[in-house]
Amino acid sequence: MDYIDLRSDTVTKPTPEMREAMAEAEVGDDVYRDDPTVNRLEELAAQMLGKEEAIFVPSGTMGNLIALLVHCQRGDEVIVGSLSHIYLNEAGGMSALGGIQPCPVPNQKDGTLHLDDIRASIRTEDVHHPITRLVCLENTQNICGGVPLTPTYTRRVGELAHQNGLSLHVDGARIFNSAVAQNVSVRELVEPADSVMFCLSKGLAAPIGSMLVGSAKFISRARHIRKMLGGGMRQVGIIAAAGIISLETMVNRLAQDHLRAKKLADGLRHVAGLSVDEGSPYSNMVYLDLTENIEIDSKQICDQARSLGILLDAENSRRFRLVTHYWVDDNAVDKTISAFREILT
Ligand SMILES: Cc1ncc(COP(=O)(O)O)c(C=O)c1O
Questions:
Q1: Does the pTM exceed 0.90?
Q2: What is the pLDDT of residue 328?
Q3: DSSP assignment letter at 108
């Protein structure tokens, strides 16, 4: 069965054009920097984000971890959102592998961290204290609703960080969704950041891979650490070829995913038994809850939806996150709205 898969944008399979490019990719040993396709992808990524250099990594998690390991020494502290992927969903990698301590600051509803909270979390010079090195932002902020952070906000955080001798890392797994949703250039959005990770394998539909971008010095150190973590891949142009197509052809079309997310949210707002978050969607994610009168839980709904050919992600027993992407068309949106109506009546 061909399912309509709304669990995440990570489920996107490569397009026929990507598969063709992958089959024909010119390759070499990337650890020797000999893979022309990877080199091209890295140059393209650096140029698009307005940074000196980029490095291709197997996953967003590894990209974030490498960034943290470059910015921090053991015992250092990183200011992160309490609802951030780095803090909640990367298996504690920064602590386990880097000896780095997270300092969580509450994420506001709009995905931001209050500047005052960041300021108050920066440790003072004291032999008892860890050394604060880094602030991390997530853009779009996933758990807060796929909310984009603005260039102005990012600039303010960058200024605060730099005035205090800290660096700024942006987990931009979906940075192009953020730029497209706000109709701003991605370069402007990440200009204040010292490093940015973004994923090719989510809304941009590549099968594998993320990019880490920053200064030449930063990326040179990142190459050592990627090797240390076992992320030095060889004839990896095979997958970089798909990443090039992502960057060249998949960015502007994210607007369609956002429109479909809006159509989905608008339709679900008219289904009795569902309460779609106010303001949702901000990009390609729709968050909603079951209303109190509904007796079945989200797991039962997921099971019934599966039998109707739809895959859903339950956040907890009452809450869902639905994500639109390249393989979700208008027909899929209509079918999903009808399926919820059928299940809940
Ligand atoms: C905001 C955010 N950052 C980082 C990641 C990690 O990416 P990966 O799954 O490629 O490790 C994800 C994955 O969903 C994410 O949503």
A1: yes
A2: 98
A3: P
